[in-house]
Amino acid sequence: MNNAYLLNPDGSSNPMQRIRCSDETRELQDILEKNLDLIPGDQINPEDPRRWICVKRELPIEDPTTGDNRWSCDFLLLDQSGIPTFVECKRFLDSRSRREVIGQMFDYAANGSGYFSRDLVADYLTSEALRRGTTLDGLLQTLGPDSGESLDDYLDLVENNIKQGQVRLVFFMEEARPELRSIVEFLNSQLERTEMLIVEAKQFQSANQRFVIPSLWGYTEEARTIKKKVTVTSRAGPRRRWTEEEFFEALNGNCAPQQVDWLRGFSDRLKASERLTLRMGNGRKTGSLIVTFPELSSRSFLFFDSNGGIVFSLHLVSNDEGGSRLKDLVLEHFSRVPRLAIPEEKRSGYHGVEDWFGDRSEIEAFFDKLEALS
Questions:
Q1: pLDDT at 226
Q2: Which residues, including other chains, have CB under 8 Å from residue 324's CB and lie 6 or more apart?
């Protein structure tokens, strides 16, 4: 049965041919590895869409009774909140029973989380960074983690989630059978800390092109509410909501008095602005003053940290018309300031600048430009 169509210029349509996967590795695993966004982060969390990095493909998992590598999970991913996400790829025609498939996932969660450590995750991430031709910091910057740009803070977040049993289990399938959907939906509504989800990646062929349409199964609003409450509670301890007083106290220990005084005055200007917003960050070790321009983007493009640095975060800005305009304004203005220019390779992650105070007039000029936009 066809359920996807190509529209022609005259308004008529041609049905696309439905494809059944015969090679799980080539038609599911390889495709997912190169396209992690096929796990639809915006459907998992519409308020804060999930972003992904691959930690390990073909993840070995030990049997706790023997210490041998008894299982192998297709993928271990991490999102920006440091939640370990186990992904198992399955063909529709896989003959194994739904009970065996579900049990396999619980084996991964119970035993995988049991032996993971901060150091093991760091080793896997280092290997993944080398494989992709980047650094560990560079890999992390592509994710834009909730903890800020510090690797230590992010690993703290991952470690805390592992200890709390905060994990996500995802079946990545071309199509799920109705009985498997029902089981996953039921379990997801009962499990408080663990998410169990199905991502259907239906594939279609038209001429020489293949199309993949991902959709999420397993989340009800009841389940979403339960997990949101538990997640907030479980993370309340290690995270820190900085006050302005705490931020400037930390800054005072890291910067010259002249720089602290200037930033105090500049933050007062931002708070008084009718077009700019300023809020405090929640890093565990480093405070931040986060600046946004809501008319173009709800996400921050720049922040000042309590170590005395200024950090550009263009990768957090949306790619819609407003966000693209904001990025262009930032890049154009600061490209003429050598110390503040953002290298091309840093535009997809955080770009921190420590020695910026000599160019504070250029920072002031940029915010003058934003406030004067028509």
A1: 61
A2: none
